[in-house]
Fold:
Amino acid sequence: MASPTDPAPEPPHQPTAETPASAQADPNLSPELAAVGTGLAALETDFAALKQRYQQVICDRTQAQQIEQQLQQPDLSEAAVQQLHQQLQTLEINLESHLFQWGALKEPFWQAVRFGGVGLILGWLLAFATMRSPQPAESSRPWPALTTDSANAGSRGEGNQVV
Structure:
């Protein structure tokens, strides 16, 4: 029986929305559950980055609209117009730069290399196999030449007898 001086047992850790999945790692979990936890942690990180990027896009679009409205004002100096065009160009580059990332091409690139390479190797093997196979005799006809005896027998009906 537990004595009153023993510390109270801790309740099992319940995951909460505030607790990241990586902090919930339990050494007693099976490898499959640990992989799920790792995947969830990666998903949470990616989702947070996506939310941050979405907020940045909204902010940049709003700022670009404000700059376009300022450019429509007729009483701007040439230096102010140049500065606004430069800011607008910078915002467009920021908006476009996150839409395309070279890292996104990594997997499709290696799949193309892998399957294209396999196709190329199979093609070489088939070409090599057909070059090594025996070639038919050089003949102008695609069928074997008939001898004169079998040709004469066929015209008289003697060669097609059924016994």
About this structure: The chain has four helices and no strands.
